[in-house]
Protein 1
Amino acid sequence: MKDFAVADMSKAASGSQKIDWAWQYMPVLSSLEDRFMEKQPFKGIKLAACLHLEAKTACLLRTFSRLGAEVYAAGSNPLSTQDDICAALVDEGVHVYSHRGMSSDEYFSYIRNVLDSRPDVIVDDGADLVATLLEERPELIENVRGGSEETTSGVKRLKAMERQGILPFPMISVNDADSKYLFDNRYGTGQSVWDGVMRTTNSLIAGKVVVVAGYGWCGRGVAMRGKALGARVIVTEIDPHRAFEALMDGHEVMTMEDAAPLGDIFLTLTGNVDVISSSHMLKMKDGVIMGNAGHFDVEISKADLKSISTEVFEVRPNVTCYRTESGNRLYLLGEGRLVNLAAGDGHPIEIMDLSFALQLMSALHVIEHHSEMESRLYPVPQDIDKLVVSTKLSSLGVSLDRLTPSQEEYMEGWKE
Ligand code: ADE
């Protein structure tokens, strides 16, 4: 088995610098690393990860490695892998299989490389590791104690496996922890998507009409930050409560069909397919910008974009122009892949500190408790969720009030 497969080991020094930069702003993860260093809880454990290979992820993988694990990592999106980070991780002793711009075949062959390690624990982002293991390597299932999943789209797939009774081992849904979705999905996506859009286009956001498809936690964050930048935000939704919430938050709500001719910037965050298709694209103005922040590149139909275009060409890094028959130019960012990672560095460091502390503690939970767990999807245990956010607050010097005994008693009772 190959030890690693990365693009260019000469980039390791640049990767290390980025990792060091991130690490200083990750007090939760680093305090957990200190806490478990002596105990080495992952000693003897082979840990397989499929994650976005950027600096914060490197901090997590390095922590697993420092705490004793033998770590095997593949990138969870062809455009989110940063080659210098991969090289630096190899220097840290992590078996990395990825390079930026990998083809779909290469993407899955790297996942297979990681599975060849015969892992004990899985850390997934998007559920491709679990899905590939299930479909192609069922003989490995008995070895896996369990794992954890980072993102909404991955959890959706694991829930489908659970419904069909084929989820192969216990998986913890990190995505659904309060310390995750309230911050990572909302404030993380809210900032990093705009970071990706602005870095890539150099466009002014103020005064623009921004169409946000999907008002889940990620959509809420992107709409909120878009509004704060001076955009007028239109939300498209299929769920009546979310649609009403968007209205109450001060956004307009309408169908994509109606929003298509109005928008200057379109951002998809639904987790579903063909949210923007040819009927919408044909109504759009010249020069519109489209980006996706859902896990898979299926929300803006690239097949439709191609089919209505007479010309397709790169205009700047990470920006593809589709010129339609009418002469309109429709711009797609980062090939319709997660714009915050394909065209940026992903979520802010301080946010990933929380999410990755949850990943670390969830993996530890699986190691310690797998024998009592069934092959189903578990929430992050409450004590872990509380520990992570409390550690964050302490690192910021924030103190909380405590209930007095009489307040506790009052809250337990019903008599006034
Ligand atoms: N960085 C690493 N993983 C990430 C994720 N799932 N979303 C955004 N930024 C990330």
Protein 2
Amino acid sequence: MRQLSKNDSDRLRALATQYGTPAYAYDAEIIRRQYQRLESAFSASNAKIRFAMKALSNPAVLSLLADLGSGVDAVSIGEVRLALHAGIPSSDISFTPSLPPIEVVQQAIDLGVHVTVDSLSLLEKFGRTFGSEVPCSLRINPHIKAGANKKVQTGHKKSKFGISVDFVERAADLVSNYGIKVVGLHVHTGSDVADAEIFVRSAEVLFAAAELFEDVEIFDLGGGFKVAYRFGENDADVELIGAKCAQIREQYIQRSGRRAEIWLEPGKYLVSASGCLLAEATTVKKSPAVTFVGVDTGLNHLIRPMFYDAYHEIENISNPSGVPQKYTVVGNICETDTFAKDRMLPEVREGDLLVFRSAGAYGFTMASQFNSHPRPPEILVDAEESRLIRRRETFEDLLTAYA
Ligand code: PLP
């Protein structure tokens, strides 16, 4: 990851003037580049990509990805309906909810999407309700700790996600009792995973489990490919991961004589780098120990630093050659919403435009109206064009749902 070029900074300053701050801006070209790199890294196994839309659910972004050939992974009925609204065919949508009641699964099936079952309790209800009529996938918890940040690990033994790999035989018994048609196995060990071996070990767990399920031909390896958040850092080596996964898929096909279609569910990898949050420095406040920069946004618009201890590079594009000084950058919410502690930035003056980088994933989608601040707009930049893909909310939007 690199600092913004002068061209990019000029462009972002123009966007801030046109659309105001705070605002999310996404670069379509970066989304296309990331998609194509991942697709080509997994070309040997002809993997199908289903974008984890929880990362960025704006319909304009979903249809941009659909034009490239992507499907969608949705986790709520709201996401399924948003994807359908964006024009994604139901056959390209998977539904991977966390611990849903059977009524929600029924709604998803009525909408025509492919369901992944994540507990034995749901599997039993699924069998009782649908028998062999509706194919499904099973999410397996492989008991693998992945990535450095505990807050985004989902495949370890104590995680709520998936059916424990220790219980796969119990799942197979339910499947045979009810005649359930399990066509896919799914795994997702978490976010920020750089180590190719994690993907290999997860895939091996699925290939081994497939022996118990005769209809399985889809192997969904999830998402979680690490992306760069700091200058000098790189994304996960998806070429290496893709090559290793292709190799073990081939071995599985050779030894089992069965089909194996690979699915991926990347979120961050496709959209993180494309996005930034533009904010104005509204206050520079010196206390005896700290110089604070207060901005016109807060944890209500970008919660990752507070929720995940995530690091986002911040650039002062109004004064890039200012003398570097140490600042603590904080939001305008009545909570301790610290974006960056003791960060060296070129001198920040009130009114300067700050850019929070790598904010395309889990930025806007996790935004709220906390403290009754409306949510910011989203802008899509494509080559020389920019367009508003979600307008800035207003006070009237805050009122819409009240009785
Ligand atoms: N698939 C599932 C089931 C997930 O829960 C997530 C993230 O929470 C993803 C895919 C996408 O993860 P990432 O954005 O790290 O690629």
